[in-house]
């Protein structure tokens, strides 16, 4: 069928070598920093404590190991593709080479949920930390300008009634717009238009700041650990998925959001100096470093205070309070680290989405204007401004809970398809040169599919309903425009 026509991997490799419109300025350190910038954010500053308090207790450490394994399986598959096909389109391009145009479109449309909506989600979290930080200095931003005008809670009895899921449960908050969230998206969009080298330098600085804060917290916190807080390490189950080993598994699904974004490194493949060598290094090194940091923070956090006290917006601040008055300065430092951490996450996510638009537009699946590259800055500036404008609007209008669920399911679907794509390409094109090969691929890739599919199955029904509606809208666009304008067509 024509909708499953594929781009040959050899053609994509040639295209990557000949397309020099984007500036190749990133080395392995920059790429690793981009990965760390995308991963270390809301997960370490918020989700660690909340998941421990609600699901896993001190065994949240095991949850991080399980979630890290799921990402490692997907990461090894991503690394093979990124080294073999160093294009900016990430999973979209990999899908085009293996499973065909229709699946590639689905991935590209799905990745909008991951990058664009995730950037808006993190911007909302950034806004909360900034408002709290400014209050310490007597600067108060009116509440009506710091949150979304509406909140949404899907009716529990709606089942699969799409009309009720989307029209009921909306509650006015009395706010007008989340202005700080919109401002940070606007600033970072402007920075990304100026150039990839400048953006990477900015990211390196804020990654260094948040790494210093996290390492300081770990180093200071070790002295305050009370081992009694780790007993029982796996609290007895209260109900299915709440403590016990079921809680450990559910905790892994919840904190999976903490790991998303390492794949954003792959969207910078056409701006890497030596992508065949540096892409696997950047992706796997950032994933490994962040997994170790998550485990260390979880151990210190649950060792310093009882896990039951951590179901708060800023759990690390609770642990810092337990250090005593002499170390109160660390509370301010943690907020600075959180603000820096969330800033770099927004930057990397807003960097990824326009490059996917760029590749889709070059293939004819989106209007040509999205493939425009600025003659001076060598960035996809039209796609960047469009992405930033939409993300600003979403961050200003929608609540963080609604956005976060959409991001998780979109990311898991992309990971699942990449794991399947590696197997398909190994079967149909075993002769292609692979600078990096996924080890034990016939075990690793199926495990990646199994882990991602299992985590998707555990997400709420209304999240699945929103994904179905989002995908239906994407299908309309594909058959109305993209299918007929495709260059392969």
Please explain how this structure is put together:
With 489 residues, the chain is an all-alpha fold. It has one domain: Amino acid/polyamine transporter I (Up-down Bundle), CATH 1.20.1740. Helices cover 66% and strands 1% of the residues. The protein contains 17 helices and two strands. Strands 1-2 form a two-stranded antiparallel sheet. Helix 2 runs parallel beside helix 11. It is globular and about 65 Å long.
List keywords for this structure.
17 helices; two-stranded antiparallel sheet; 1% strand; single chain; Amino acid/polyamine transporter I; 489 residues; globular; mainly alpha
Low-confidence stretches: none
Instruction: Please identify, by name, the CATH architecture.
Output: Up-down Bundle
CATH topology tier name: Amino acid/polyamine transporter I
C-alpha Rg (nearest Å): 22 Å
As a percent range, the share of strand residues is: under 5%
Helix residue percentage:
55-70%
The CATH class turns out to be: Mainly Alpha
CATH superfamily: Amino acid/polyamine transporter I
Total helices: the number is 17
- Taking strands numbered 1, 2, ... along the chain, how are they ordered across the largest sheet? 1-2
Give average pLDDT, whole number: 83
Overall outline: globular
Q: Note the main sheet.
A: 2 strands, antiparallel
Q: N-to-C SSE series?
A: HHHHHHEHEHHHHHHHHHH
Structural class estimated from helices and strands: mainly alpha
Number of domains: 1
Number of strands: 2
